[in-house]
Structures are given as C-alpha cells and as structure tokens.
Model the fold of this input.
Amino acid sequence: MNGIEILGLAAGTITSVTFVPQVIKIWKTRSAKDLSVAMLLLLLLGVSMWLAYGIIVKDVAIIYTNSMVLAMGLLMLYFKWKF
Done:
C-alpha cells in the first residue's frame, strides 16, 4: 500500500465517520423527523453511483468510503421510516 492509497483510505474514513454522530443521535432520541427524505435518497443515489464507479475502476478507497457512507445512509433511511 502506497502513500496515495493511505491518503485515500484516511480521507474516506474521516468522510464516513461524519455520519456516525447523526446515526447515534437518531438512535438515542428515536426521532428522525428533521431528516429530509429527499436528501437521503439523493445521498444514496450518489453514493451508489460512486460505489459502482469505484468497483469499475477497482479503486479501494472509493469502494471503502462509499460502502461505509451507503451503510450509514441506509441506516438513517431505515430510522426515518421506523421512527
């Protein structure tokens, strides 16, 4: 693994972690009323496209980052529906 891959994975980790506080807040408060469904759907569409792109070009950092963000986005969408 070279420095550029490490940079990409580090950036991906930081980007992905930004969703964790929101997921925790929704879980603790059992409320997702302030989340926009349109924003979540657009996020999921964009992240899915980035994930597909990463798979096509075989870029580990893009695949890793967008898999994590997709998981967080799907979890928030589930919480929006459940709560």
Summary: The two ends are 42 Å apart (CA to CA). DSSP finds four helices and no strands in the chain. The chain has one domain: 3-82. The first helix runs from residue 3 to 17.
